[in-house]
Amino acid sequence: MNAVPDPDGPPSPTPTAATATATERPDVARALVSSPLPLPTTTRLALLVLVAGAGASFATWWWLVLGRDNWPDAQLACLPTTDAAPDEVLTRFTGCVGDVRLAQSAVVLCGPLALLALALLCRAAGRRLSLWWWRAEPEHCSPLARRLAAVAPEGEGPRPVLWVRHGRRVGVRARASGTVHRPRIVADSHFFNENDRHVDAVLRHELAHLRLRDVGRVRLAIAASWLLLLGVTLPMAVALARDPGLLGAGLLVRMAVVLAVVLLTLCAVLRVREHDADLGAAADPRAPRNATADHLGSALPPRRVEHLRRYLGLATHPTPAVRLAVLADPARSWGLSSLECLTTGLAAGLVFTDLTLLVAALMPDHTQLAYMAGGLLTGWAVAGVVTVAWWRAVAVGHRDASGRRAAQAGAALGLGVLLGSQLAGRAAGDWVRDTGTADGLATALSLTDVPREQVLALGVVLVAGGALFALWTTSLARALGATVDGPRSAPACAAAVGLSGLLLAVPLGSWFLFARLTAARAAPDIRWAVIDTPWWVAGVLTTVVGALVPAAAARASRHPGPRGCLLDRVGRNAPVLPADPIQKTSPSGAGRIRPLALLAAATVLVAAGAGWAAFGSGPGRAPAAARSGDSAVSAAPTDSSVSHSGDRTIPLDQLPVLPPEEERTAALRTNTALVCRSLSLGGTAIWTDPQRRADTAELLGGLDDTVLRAAAAVLQRDPAGAVDRHALVASVLRCDLYFRYGR
């Protein structure tokens, strides 16, 4: 999981050989570190945010919602105690259950917020505890403090204060610490014995960390990772080891894999920040030429253990040879490898389900719209990593932005989404079956028992879609003339990120909804209902048109984009970076289309189409079909006296069905468990077919339950008309409570 891709082959075997060929390009380094575009450290930190947030939200749901039996007191309090008009009964019941689920979603959302708050506290406490533990003291008049004052640039905020650590185990190290307003350089006492040139190089490197403001963010990421391990992973592992249940093994394996992803991503962040700091030190105009390269070249060769950690992706610092290679070619660190795209896809797959289930709690009557909203938010998160990275790669002419390499990275992104969706805790098993609940926050996502051809089809769609997205993104960057600096570089990149999220909303949301229905073994007509709506058709059309407009602009403008290496365009008495060539238009302006105008038009088109599809077509039948598909596979005890705590489940093929009409007795007709089972097994046909709907209404009306009788009264008003949505949803919710709590 190397943070810096190496398109030209492996680095030189020794730092000495690398130093002979490495020549710093301070102009290029200065341009990269001063660019308004986000640096690689920033985008890689976004991956940690996604994975840590997903883990914290799932753990919160596990402990505070599922661990408390989905709040039985609040759920059962929604049952009406007095009779009222049927419409009023249904409205009050569904609204009350919706409020409970919304409260549960708010609790789940507090997980990532609590993780952030605790990480902030740990970071602040750890900084002070470290100074106390190592007996660090500030020094203002020592020779080392004067060296720091000499190399620290003036006029760039508060000047850092030198703190020296004293103790038995201190070595020869220096590190950046503190905050933006109170920066510090913490050095070991033995650091005084180094020569001045070495000291100056190390201090410039640490000052670059402070100038790039990555100290606080990285310390925060480290604290969050430890909290995720100690506060989430280990307690859940202990609980599952003591009582594994039906989902214990699947959860333990997934927790280990996710923890490994977090660790590898954190190590990649720590490595890439060193490259950014090296470039920042090399960009110092007061530093002697090649001072950073000379310092790195004098380092000792890495030991065998360090080589092993590097190949395993666990190294927190790149080797001197790799750092020298980046100094020789600063644009090298602005690439986007397939491995990084795979990790981004894993993070997206992990976060999508929890995020979408929270959104669905806000709009319980619009399941499909909730999935599209989840796709929009996840798409923006993905675009904030990969779209920005491809934009940077195009700006510097990196090989990772070429057609073939970009397509491979995009395919890895799609594959990562598939793997991430199956590594999520929600895919550890059939939560609906194994926990006896279909409350909306528990769902079935595991594709392990799905026919292989269906899984292969879902995977091919994601891989091909990721490759197309990569080609489109790089084409968009060339169409807009992506540059490293300039007044339009950052706004154009931000607009591309916004457009990318809009274009990913419908594809991502539709794929995850299809995967959920496929994992639940929903009937083909239910899956077809997802796309058989004006909402979905309009969303797909706007996505395709919005994607084609920038591609057409790239072809029409005939803008070649950045060619060759950035190093070839900077230097030889040329300006630091070329002016934005896309602003150069002919005097007449004929035949030239302004890319920003096209980008704005495409964004408006996508937003208008999505708005019309969401609100212009009215409530579709897809959400009802999706909800019925979820409930159709729920299995719960047939005995109404058995609650969820009994942990009894019955295979689907062994569930009882209603006997023929002539064989139904009064006892069968008044058996709430049997009637609710028939609703689950009947699918959408019992609601869409007039005769079966009338039969269902008759069964519901014969039960001793206020909610189900009210649903029957509403359904019997017009059996041949449109299905009343409140009656359908209320029936499913009421049966869910009955199966789970036995009353």
Short recap of the structure:
With 743 residues, this protein is mainly alpha-helical. 64% of the residues lie in helices and 3% in strands. The protein is built from 29 helices and 4 strands.
Mean pLDDT: 76
What strand order characterises the main sheet?
Answer: 1-2-4-3
What is the count of helical runs? 29
Quaternary structure annotation: single chain
Output the structural class.
mainly alpha
Instruction: Please report which band the strand proportion falls in: under 5%, 5-15%, 15-25%, 25-35%, 35-45% or over 45%.
Output: under 5%
pLDDT below 50 for ≥5 consecutive residues: which ranges? 1-22, 558-593, 612-656
What order do the helices and strands come in, and which of them pair?
Layout: H1 15-21, H2 26-33, H3 40-64, H4 72-76, H5 86-133, E1 137-139, H6 143-151, E2 161-165, E3 174-178, E4 183-188, H7 196-212, H8 215-242, H9 248-282, H10 291-297, H11 304-311, H12 320-328, H13 338-362, H14 367-396, H15 403-423, H16 431-434, H17 452-479, H18 489-519, H19 524-531, H20 534-557, H21 566-569, H22 595-616, H23 622-632, H24 666-669, H25 672-682, H26 685-688, H27 690-701, H28 706-715, H29 725-741
